[in-house]
Amino acid sequence: MSDKTLRIIPIGGLGEIGKNMTAYEYGDAILLVDAGLMFPTADMLGVDYIIPDFGFLLEKAHKVVGLVLTHGHEDHTGAVRHVVEKIPVPIYATPLTKGLVEVKLKEAGLAGQVRVHEVRAGERVRIGPFRVEFVHVAHSIPDSVALGIETPAGLVVQTGDYKFDHTPVDGRPTDFGRLAELGRRGVLALLADSTNADKPGWTPSERSIEPALEAVFRKAKGRILVATFASLISRMQQVVNIAVRFDRKVGFVGTSMVANAKMARKMGYLDVPESHLVTLDQARKLPPEEVVLLITGSQGEPSSILGRLAAGARRPLRIQEGDTVVIAAHPIPGNTENVYRAINSLLRRGAEVYYSPVHPVHVSGHASREEMKLMIQLVRPRYLIPVHGELRHLHLHAQLGMELGIPKERIAVVENGQVLEFRNGQMHIGERLPGGWVFVEGALVGESTMRDIKERQDLARRGLLFIEVEVDRRTGKLLGDPEVRSKGFVFPQGGEALVEAVRRKVRQILKRGPTDPEQALEQALRDFIYNETRRRPMVLVVIKERVPEAVP
After folding, report:
1. Is 247 one of the catalytic residues?
2. Which of 3, 121, 342, 503 has the fewest CB atoms in 10 Å of its CB?
3. How much is the pLDDT for 552?
4. What is the distance between the alpha carbons of residues 542 and 521, in angstroms, rounded to a whole number?
5. pLDDT band per the 50, 70, 90 thresholds, residue 1
6. What's 524's domain CATH number?
7. Range of the domain at 437
8. What share of the chain is helix, strand, coil (3-state, %, to 5)?
9. What is the CA radius of gyration of the chain?
């Protein structure tokens, strides 16, 4: 590789929604941008969340000069703790993003082990051979930035998540002037958010949902529970503002919700009057019509507050007749089933439920097609690299670029792990690196594979038939009756006869003296059960050897 070659490596976020992460490599230096997580789909049983596969960076850890964060949402910061555990690299973040990340690092026991540098929109920071300019953009969380990354090979702009909201909740619209100034300086490549590439027109302002929220408050006779992301500080502020106008007390429920709200209040990003702030215990003692609770679980996650409420949990909070639940988020692709299942359960328990798109209680934080066109026109890149979206979004974004005059050969639609190289102002497709999924399950990181997940799915669909056999260690003869148990596999009516038939089959197979009795039994019993029931449970045979006690 030439010393003058810039390599851009998408590690996550391309061909999927979430776990956004990009590496910029020049010479002996690597700059990382974002390190996010992705929520599991409904069929990823046992998985808490998914992080990018950054394993290839470990052998180059000494080259990593910094991790820059565009904003504080989980899909851009949720994997930070996992990255810094392996690569203790300095982090650069705007004030609110810094606060949110420090909460995560503290929860992970990593506080003080890495340095988090605070930067502000408009500043430029030298990080190794890279000079990074932070440009304010409007999103659904304050302190979001696009990045102008000056490299010896040229200027690259990465938008992060953005939209052109003229009336954002924090009062700070996107900095059109700085984006245009970057464009005038000459941009080699633009890496731009593609999430809403299938949405025509312009994304509505964050403030556009306030009339809908006010209508909910006006109608509700009991408690109001608003489910949203714990990092969605702007949405928290909107709910608080309306709650104050309707003279309702506000409580925060859920570990991450409480921690983030406390941090945001301390830093001045969330204004909750002391007269209207209550704990959950205090809220439970108040008349229902005086209470608003902000809770986690807008994606229907079973372990979240909303998920537990939908499942009928009784502590520390339960749904009661007359409650109003507002789900202030769109389902992330793959989570729709979870969200709708939760809605159905809440309705069954007597709650009134408001959710998008049936009710306008949420608006996207991402640019729609006309805004994406405007971003391209402002930045005027030589090369366009659509990022942050499923493959269909990336292709639609590429089509927008071609409509605006960027030749097809100067647009790169790639997926995770595909290296893009820039030499002498020209883009080349490089090698393909691993760009898969790393599953996180409690304290286990990367221990499970897709094969394990598929086995769980298989087990959930088919059930398990477990046969335990005892044989004489000396002779190999069967001792007693085989024990037959099932988990998730239901025997047909008259199942006792089938169980006895299974035992007879075990005796027949063992009499033949197979070389590998466990494998022979599993195969024969799978075929036998299918012939009898037309179903294929997973069959697990365990053979225990023992020496029978001598008869006196």
Report:
1. no
2. 3
3. 56
4. 10
5. very low
6. 3.10.20.580
7. 6-202+364-445
8. 35, 25, 40
9. 28
Same domain, 225 and 317: yes
What pLDDT was estimated at residue 175?
Answer: 97
- One-character DSSP codes across 500-515: HHHHHHHHHHHHT--S
Helix axes 255-267, 233-245, angle to 10 degrees: 80
Residue 432 maps to which CATH number? 3.60.15.10
Is residue 229, in this structure, part of any structural domain at all?
A: yes
Q: Is the pLDDT assigned to residue 494 strictly greater than 90?
A: no
The pLDDT tens digits of the residues spanning 501-541 come to 888 888 888 888 777 888 888 888 889 888 888 888 888 88
Angstrom distance (rounded) from CA 354 to CA 325: 6
What tokens does 279 get?
């704990």
In this prediction, residues 206-234 reach a mean pLDDT of: 92
- The SS3 call for residue 79 is coil
- 193 catalytically annotated: yes
Q: Angle 176-185/369-379 helices, nearest 10 degrees?
A: 50
Residue 132 pLDDT > 90, yes or no? yes
Distance CA 433, CA 60 (A): 14
Same domain for 275 and 416, yes or no, is no
Kind plus residue range of the DSSP H or E element containing 292: strand 291-295
Residues 327 and 411 in one domain: no
In the set 76, 366, 388, 397, the catalytic residue is 366
Among the options 161, 165, 175, 193, which is catalytic? 193
Q: Which of 355, 375, 401 is the last residue of a domain?
A: 355
Is residue 84 situated within a structural domain?
Answer: yes
Check whether residue 52 and residue 167 sit in a common domain: yes
